[in-house]
Amino acid sequence: MIVFITGASAGFGAEMARTFVKNGHQVVISARRSERLAELAAELGEAALPLELDVTDPASIADALAMLPQSWRQIDVLINNAGLALGTKPAQEAPLEDWETMIATNCAGLARMTRAILPAMVERGSGLVINLGSVAGHYPYPGGNVYGATKAFVEQFTLNLRADLAGTGVRATNLAPGLCGGTEFSNVRFKGDDAAAAKVYEGTTPLTAKDIAETAYWIATLPPHVNVNSIELMPTCQGFAPFNIKRV
Ligand code: NDP
Ligand code: 8X3
């Protein structure tokens, strides 16, 4: 299989690339930080093709896709993994630019990548799109505001893809993890405050990027007649909060 992964310079994306290559597949590893991609490509060898690409920039996507060598163009699996959360401030205080960046990356970027790669899958009558959602798209929490809303978009977009793709042979999955450590997610969310990022995982045994990569691999290697619509994972230590009732 040829697997196109966005956000492969860190976290889930890099681990997914390792997992697919270890199992004999080829991966296009894309992200903005080309030096990171070069390091991963050196680790993975000829089975990995680094491709610098910013999902928020239509021209960057078009240029990158145009540079794909002919033998790498038949993409069997698109993993829309590039994404981010910025900040945990309440809605009335959160910087508008952070909201715009999350929407541009997690929603518009993901939709744009899908629109670019989906038609060839439909033409061939096979393919799979795995979109990285989140538990934040299912359950609200304080400070989740726009991040959670972007992940709800990811889930509903995926299900609407399923509606359009029925009968085409092309599959789509929303993969929605909960608390997952060992990636740059919280370092990005807390804008480089690594101590605050580390605190998120204190005293927990969170999911790992390997757990998510293995789940993506399992989804991609199911028989072609099986579609996982949406799958949610949490670490065993994570649960649900009670309703928050302010009493006077
Ligand atoms: P990381 O921060 O470790 O990795 C995010 C990746 O996205 C990086 O490779 C980054 O690369 C890339 N990226 C960010 N913006 C862009 C952009 N504009 N264009 C292209 N690539 C971009 O995060 P995780 O691996 O933890 O998260 C991956 C996905 O999983 C995200 O969508 C996240 O929302 C989701 N998720 C994460 C959870 C967690 O707890 N970790 C839980 C649930 C969902 P670069 O900066 O080089 O462009
Ligand atoms: C990441 C999980 O709980 O930080 O999507 O929103 S959470």
Helicity level: 40-55%
> What is the CATH H-level superfamily?
NAD(P)-binding Rossmann-like Domain
Arrangement of strands in the largest sheet: 3-2-1-4-5-6-7
Low-confidence spans: pLDDT under 50, at least 5 residues? Answer: none
CATH architecture: 3-Layer(aba) Sandwich
Task: Give the count of structural domains.
Answer: 1
Give the helix/strand class: alpha/beta
User: Beta-strand level of the residues, as a percent range?
Assistant: 15-25%
What would your notes on this structure say?
The protein has 248 residues and is an alpha/beta fold. The chain has one domain (2-233): Rossmann fold. The chain has 8 helices and 7 strands; from the N terminus they run βαβαβαβαβαβαααβ. It has helices at residues 11-22, 34-44, 58-66, 96-124, 145-165, 185-189, 194-199, 209-220, and strands at 2-6, 26-31, 48-52, 77-80, 127-132, 170-177, 230-233. It has a 7-stranded parallel β-sheet, with helices on both faces. Helix 1 (11-22) crosses helix 8 (209-220) and helix 4 (96-124) packs parallel to helix 5 (145-165). The mean pLDDT is 98. The structure holds NADPH dihydro-nicotinamide-adenine-dinucleotide phosphate and 2-hydroxyethylsulfonic acid. The site of 2-hydroxyethylsulfonic acid (8X3) has 6 residues, from loops. Belongs to the short-chain dehydrogenases/reductases (SDR) family. This is SDR family oxidoreductase. InterPro entries: NAD(P)-bd_dom_sf, Sc_DH/Rdtase_CS, SDR_fam. Keywords: Oxidoreductase.
